[in-house]
């Protein structure tokens, strides 16, 4: 009996779901790190004010949003050039 391995096909819904899951996990990690850094800065440097916590969390969420945007739209990656279909045929 021979075992044949068939290449696994991944549907587009699964690819989008995986990207979305990665973005959500990235959001939780980066906003948590920003929150933690904000708490530490608030306690040590800014006499227990609330704005460093909000600022750190916002920076983390912004970084996660930028990474997610690059994941879903690869044209936004710096240095990426999109070649139109007509130019690609001529080369």
Word description of this protein:
By secondary structure, this protein is an all-alpha fold. The chain has a domain of 58 residues. Helix content is 67%, strand content 0%. The protein contains three helices and no strands. Helix 1 runs antiparallel to helix 2. It is elongated, with a radius of gyration of 21 Å. The chain starts with 11 loop residues before the first helix and ends with a helix. The mean pLDDT is 87.
Topology:
Elements (H helix, E strand, L loop, with lengths): L11 H33 L6 H22 L12 H6 L1
**Amount of beta strand:** under 5%
Which class best fits the helix and strand makeup? mainly alpha
**Uncertain stretches:** none
User: How far is the first residue's CA from the last residue's CA?
Assistant: 47 Å
Radius of gyration: 21 Å
- In total, the number of strands is 0
Q: Helix share of residues?
A: 55-70%
Family: Belongs to the MICOS complex subunit Mic10 family.
Membrane topology: Single-pass membrane protein
Subunit structure: Component of the mitochondrial contact site and cristae organizing system (MICOS) complex.
Protein name: MICOS complex subunit MIC10
